[in-house]
Amino acid sequence: MRFLSLFSGIEAASVAWHPLGWTPVAFAEIEPFPCAVLKHHYPIVPNLGNVSAITKSQIDALMPIDVVVFGFPCQDLSVAGKREGLVSDDGTATRSGLFFDAMRIVEWS
Description:
The protein is of the alpha/beta class. Helix content is 31%, strand content 14%. It has 4 helices and 3 strands; from the N terminus they run βαβααβα. A 3-stranded parallel β-sheet has the order 2-1-3. The longest helix is centred in the last third of the chain and has 11 residues, at 98-108.
């Protein structure tokens, strides 16, 4: 199985799925420390960076993709957070609104 990991962090999915023979085709992470961890452990797997900037042509170049895995930022939905939802009052996406970018990428896969 070939998978794309969005909001990858330090990549728990790859650690869990490696014994099954699953292969990451790309990551999408922007935070400096997780990016350094990914580069160290997976030097040949590309990091596509910001999910909002990923293009269809980037996804097409990775095909075939069997699974897209992600855990998008949920602070704006959580009872522990500000509960702003996916879209703020002014119509702009909140951090949790990155869900829409993830679903756009899933549709392309």
